[in-house]
Design a protein that fits this description.
Mean pLDDT: 85
Number of strands: 12
Low-confidence stretches: none
Strand content: 25-35%
Strand order of the largest sheet: 3-5-7-8-9-10
Largest sheet: 6 strands, mixed
CATH topology: tt1808, chain A
Helix content: 10-25%
């Protein structure tokens, strides 16, 4: 990444480099995405449960981390890579091999020890501005999830609660405790 430091580029230019893995492009500038082992594992578990559900209810597709979302056409130098996302069949038009051009319906972010609160809040604002309907922010340390909705509503779900797909993924539910290691 040292060769790209200070270089402003478009999302397509950056994604064509070999150095794009583990980075988002924030208004033309590469920004590392910190991901710890526990956070990565938790994201994988949630992805598994969602993918399993969608195998029975083909409402759309899941995309894992490292999938770039270009949902801000006014800023060619900007994309995000959430830890996981669901895109409904209605929004699947506009896919390219490397970049998701459609706006996800659901995004989830798993908080890592090095994540900064302000950067997470900025991502949330960007997701909702782009048209994301539901965001789950997962906190491995407290074994909990905060649900953010496009209408401004939200809810905290603790380890003993259930995470549901609400109207974005009707019928989906998983026990929050099942997202985390048992010991």
């Amino acid at each position: 990444m040292a060769t790209l430091t200070g270089t402003r580029m478009t999302a397509d230019e950056f994604l064509a480099t070999e150095e794009s893995e583990g980075y988002e492009l924030v208004h033309g500038c590469p920004e590392e995405i910190p991901m710890g082992a526990l956070s990565s594992w938790v994201g994988g578990e949630l992805f598994f449960y969602l993918r399993l559900f969608l195998g029975q209810q083909p409402l759309g597709r899941m995309f894992p981390q490292e999938t770039a979302v270009k949902a801000w056409p006014e800023d060619e130098g900007h994309f995000r890579k959430p830890d996981g996302m669901f895109v409904s069949n209605a929004r699947l038009a506009g896919l390219t091999p490397q970049t998701l051009q459609a706006v996800p319906d659901l995004v989830f972010e798993v908080i890592s020890p090095n994540d900064e609160t302000q950067k997470t809040e900025t991502k949330l604002q960007e997701y909702f501005t782009a048209g994301v309907r539901l965001v789950w922010v997962i906190y491995p340390e407290s074994r909990s999830v905060y649900i953010y909705r496009a209408d401004g509503g939200g809810a905290w779900v603790g380890a003993d609660g259930m995470l549901t797909g609400e109207d974005v993924l009707p019928g989906f539910s998983v026990a929050v405790k099942d997202l985390f290691p048992s010991s």
